[in-house]
Amino acid sequence: EAFFGLSRTPFTRELSASDLFPSRQHRELLERLRFTAERRLVLLLTGEVGAGKSTALRALRDRLDATRYEVLYLADVAFTPRSFYQSLLDGLRLDAPHALPKLKRVARQALAERFSTQRRTPVLLVDEAQFLSPVMLEEIRGLLNYECDAFAPFALVLCGTRALSERLALRSAEALSQRIDLRYHLGGFSSQETAAYIRHHLKLAGADSELFTAKALDQIHRACNGLPRPINQLAHLCLMAAAARQERLVDHDLVEAVMAAEWQVPQPSGR
What SS3 state is found at 203? Predict the structure, then answer.
């Protein structure tokens, strides 16, 4: 930071929603997420690891009116029906009964009452949903059954890798798949967006001049498939290497050297 005259460390996850880079895809995704919350729909959000899915969920939480929406972030790769409903009630700040049938009943009633009595729409954000067991997928399908399909008192976002879409395409998950109103796959940045993204983070950190050459930016884009998380990691390593060498500008050769010494090329998540 001192070497480059920066006021803070760039490429960190500790950014406010207002400072997030507004790529075309992320803007479109946020509009779909907002529409899902407003209409109490079910959205399937997929993308490669590091594409910014969880970041988009965080941005949605920060931008929704807290007097009208109650956002519940649910993420556990080992959810069981009991732990899922307990987490849901914990998010609603309610006590969770021990017996599973009562636990499920209380959770369903709580969601309905938040909407009908308090006039606040619960927005359930289920992250890492590719790890949900078949039992949990069936529980979520059952949770969506309200009043003979007349209405749902909450919005639901199922978020995961491409493997989640593959699982929902199976016949065993057909009933849940039919409940999904919107689907969105979040891909990587374009080459131009990657360059703008890196400059955006550097500007937030106080940079007042270019720190990467155009060829270096293009190399980072190709190495990271345009995905924000690996871009952050590689760009940070390049700045550290440049500072260690007392070089004020990250060029293509330095990026190549960092990749050869410290970088593992990110692979598509698949499963």
Answer: helix
1-to-11, 22, 94, 240, 242 alpha-carbon distances in Å: 12, 25, 45, 9, 11
Predicted confidence band at 177 (pLDDT cuts at 50, 70, 90)? Answer: very high
pLDDT at 270: 47
Burial (CB < 10 A; 0-12, 13-18, 19+), residue 14, is: exposed
Helices 191-204 and 214-224: crossing angle in degrees, nearest 10, is 110
**pLDDT higher than 80, residue 230:** yes
Maximum Cα–Cα distance across the chain:
68
Query: Which two tokens mark 205?
Result: 């950190």
In whole angstroms, give the CA distance from residue 155 to residue 152: 8
* CA distances for 260 relative to 180, 216, 219, 220, 253, angstroms: 43, 14, 13, 13, 11
Using one digit for the tens of pLDDT, what is the confidence trace for 188-224?
A: 999 999 999 999 999 999 998 999 999 999 999 999 9
195/226 Cα distance (integer angstroms): 10
**The two three-digit tokens of residue 72, written as one number:** 């519940």
Spell out the alpha helix ranges (H) of 40-160: 53-63, 81-91, 100-116, 134-143
Any residues with CB less than 8 A from the CB of 118 and at least 6 apart, and which? none
